[in-house]
Every structure is written in C-alpha cells, then in structure tokens.
Write the structure tokens for this entry.
Amino acid sequence: MPDTVFELNRPDVVTESFDGEFVVLDLSSGVYFAFQGSGNAIFQALEQGARPGDILAALETAGNAHRAAAADFIDALISARLIRPAANQQANAAPFPAAAVATAPALERFDDLAELILADPIHDADADRGWPLMAEAK
Amino acid sequence: MAQSSTGDPLVAYAREILDLGRRHMARAQPRRYRLPFATADVFSTDSAFSAACDRALAVAAGDAQDDASSLRLCIADAAALGCAPPRGWWEPSYSAVDFERRLEAAGLGGAYWHDARMWTVFDRATGEGVQLLSRPGAWPPWEPASPLRLFLAWAHLAGGRRLVHAATLGRDGIGALIAGQGGSGKSGTTLAGLAAGLDSAGDDYVLVDPAAAADGAIMAHPVYRVAKQDPAGLSRLGLSRLAAASAPNWQGKHEFDVAAIGGGRISALKLKAILAPRIAGAAQTRITPASARDAMLALAPSSVFQIPGERVSALSFFAGLARRLPAFRVELGRDPAEIAARIDAFLGEAA
C-alpha cells in the first residue's frame, strides 16, 4: 500500500512518545511494542501522514542502505495492526528526511502480558464449569 | 461493539447485580476498613474473604483524609443474595477492553472472571460495588493477596490516583518505584530491602498520587501489607521460616505480612525515582541511568493490562510518571544484603 496514508489504529492502539522514542500498547491483544533504530522516525512520519511510498522513495533516492529494512518495518506495523488506512487520505507533503534513517529500523514485540487480555470464553469454555482454570491453561 | 448504555444488555445485567448488592447492604452489617483516600464498608457473606481483607489490607493510620471516598462493597455468592447463579458470557465474542468501554460509557466499572463466572461491578457515581460469586470461595486465586483490588482501582480514578503494579522501597519517607516484567527480581529486591530495614509502600500494588503533596511530589501509598515470594527466593533471603507459616499460593509462592520479615515497615513514600531491576548475578549491584522510555516499558504495560479501567488515560498517567521521575536500571548482584545496601545508598543520594 505505498500510496496509502495511515493512522494509529485507535482506540485499541495507544502510544506515548519520549523524546522521539515510542511505546505502543495494543489494548485489544495485550501486546506492547517499542522500536529500535530509526523505527521511531519512520513511525512518527507515518503517524504524521507520510505515505510509505514517499518514505521509501526518499530512501531510494538518497541511496540509503536501510531501504529494505524500512519496507519490512512498515509491513510489520501494518501486520501488527498498529496502523490502519487513514480516514483522511490527505498526505503530508513534507519530504521525508532520509538522513533520519541512519540505522536499521526494527519492531520490538512484547507478549508477556497478552494472557491477561486474551481470555476467549467462546472457544475454550466448558458449559458446566465456565472458563478453564488458569493453572490448567498453562 | 459499543452500544448505547441504555439499551446494552451488559449494562442492564451490571445494574441488576448492583441492585442485588444494594438490597443486601441495606440489611447487613459491614466491616469498615480505613484505607488511603478511601473508607470501605465491606459486606461479605464469605468469612474467608473477610479474613483475607483483615490480613491483606493496609489500614491507614491517623485521621481520615478530607477527600476520602466512601465505598460500600458487597462480596456475596448467588445463594446468599437469593438470586440466580451468575450469568455466563452470552455474546459470540468477548473482548475485555470492549466490555470495559461499554460499562464505562454507563458510569460503571466492571470485570468478568470466566473461570467461575464471577462478576465485579462498580458504580462510580455512588461508590457502591458488588462482586457476585457463583458459590462461597469461588474467587480468583490471586484475590487473597489483593482483595478489593478492582474496586479500589476504579474508586481512585476520580481523584486522579491510580493503583500501580509495582513494588517500592524507601527510607525516611523517600522512595522509589520498582518495576519490571515478571522474573525481573522486583519482589526479591523489595524483600531484601525490607529485611535490611528499608521501608516499603507495597511489593505488588501501590496507590500512586501524582499531585498530593504541597511541593508537587509524587506519593506512593500502601494499599496492601502482604508480600509474596517462592521458597527458593525466601531461602536466598534467609527468610525460609516464612515458608513454614503458610501454604504456597496458586503461583507456588508464600504470602506473608511484611511485618513478619522483621525489618522495615509499610509506609507512604515520596517517590524520587523509578528503578527497573534485572537479575544479573553480578558480584555487585550496579545502578545506571535509563531512559524515560525504558521506565515506561518497565512500569506501564503490566499496570495497564492488569488493572481494568480507563486504560487509554492510564497510559498518559504512566507516561507522566516516566517523564517526571528519573529512571535507573538496576543490575542486581547475587547477595541480598549487598543489593539492599546499594539501594539504601541510592535512596540516601536521592533524598
């Protein structure tokens, strides 16, 4: 989707930024994320309306060595449902600064807390006993 | 799917549960617990639950605060209330977050524990709450160490305070939040500190008030006075005697009153830092600066995911803590006494 403008997948996905470093929580899955390297800069650009194609074209033009990693990173953001096609497809016209991608971007995924959210009573429930005991589930 | 609160069957059932509880509370006698910023009148039909409250809650010292919430909480099984057994979840899909959003839209807090069809509902306008059990004792295995946890979490939202899943250590009223993933060593660190005479506002959940003190300090208040540790951890800490005093809980950990450790005490702390420990097995404990993002990763997810209620604003709350409090990585050494001494020295410098 190189020409698609994306937005944060609210309200399930929430994020906070600390001096340009993001922490992202998916409230629906209990999984949370952080970004390595230039992932923060790419995520911020996407959040501000840059199109993936424009970001990758800027890296291509600059001969940036991390273009392929950037493409994989954007795919990972979409696959993880952290971003979705925006309701407003007006792209941010500001050129993406290729120099911001000085290191390979990467998505760090933490799922140690997912079981707190991912109780699915429909598929595993016992009609008589209710939801299977947590100790058994483990 | 969000629906209007007026026509939502989930909201209607939550209100039905509240009405059942209100009728019981109108004719029963409560046990009163004066907690930080809340006075809870607990109407329990389950003597074991009452015993858990007596054992685990950190009753506040001194006079009641002017802005304390008044809570009326009913913990009862269906037979005691004379009602039908709690309903099982009836919709084709279930999302904990959607469940909460629908109740929040109606001014309610709520949680559903599938294992035993336990419903917990709280009316945020009146401070009334009901935990409806399918039978006596059918509460979650983690409940005895932190009874009333959900009610207290919801009640404190109005005052801008939050129940935080973190440990604490302090001295002379100055302290640090200790946060991290399971297995990071935060409980062991807290117990090592307590055994060495440091104080704590809690080793699992604490009430954090970001704007309580006149000087704008962030305070941590104790809510529970129970600590947990597995037998191996107690052995490392030289506290194996505590294992003999109680059966292991659902996690294989022993639960005991912090006072039984015989060192520090439970007390409110003015927070000066966030510490993110990691079991390193080094000869000496090292404390080095960490980023606000690292503090956020250590602190926020477990609180946001474990404690229902306004999870979106919860993230902002924890981000505020991470921005205001300096963060440090703690590479834990092998010797509990050395860990405690290092943290004691750190707190002395932070004061």
Summary: The domain at 162-350 of chain B is CATH 3.40.50 (Rossmann fold). Chain B touches chain A at residues 88-89, 92-97, 101, 113-117, 134, 141, 181-182, 250, 291-293, 296-297, 300-302, 304-306, 311-312, 315-316, 318-319, 322-323 (CB under 8 Å).
